[in-house]
Specification:
This protein has 106 residues and is of the alpha+beta class. It has helices at 24-34, 69-78, and strands spanning 9-15, 35-44, 81-87, 95-101. α1 links the parallel β1 and β2 (35-44). It is globular.
Length: 106
């Protein structure tokens, strides 16, 4: 597998992956490591704050990591990433998460 250099990637797209990871902390660490300071991550994963079918959360379906808004934001901050929800339809029913590198405080 090709090695991705630190701070070399301007766009990361990660769709419906994080809920399948046993170690989402390690994945977020790698994303933060390769993300360019002016780059952005576009990510989708279900947050438990929204209504969904409870059958969704079950290891037999491969869904092993479920986040609340608070836990997902904490995961992002832990790795120096700011987080916002961005709707991508006019009814604002579908959304993605946009993550960017936190700017150093002066």
């Amino acid at each position: 597998i090709h090695q991705i250099g630190d701070s070399s990637t301007k766009v990361v797209i990660c769709t419906e992956v994080f809920e399948h990871l046993f170690h989402p902390n390690a994945a977020m660490a790698e994303i933060s490591k390769i993300l360019h300071p002016e780059g952005a991550v576009y990510l989708t994963t279900l947050l438990s704050d929204y209504k969904f079918d409870m059958n969704y959360i079950h290891p037999s379906k491969g869904h092993v990591s479920i986040f609340s808004r608070n836990s997902f934001e904490t995961l992002c901050k832990l790795h120096g990433l700011s987080w916002e929800i961005v709707p991508f339809d006019s009814d604002k029913q579908y959304y993605m998460h946009r993550l960017t590198k936190m700017k150093p405080k002066n």
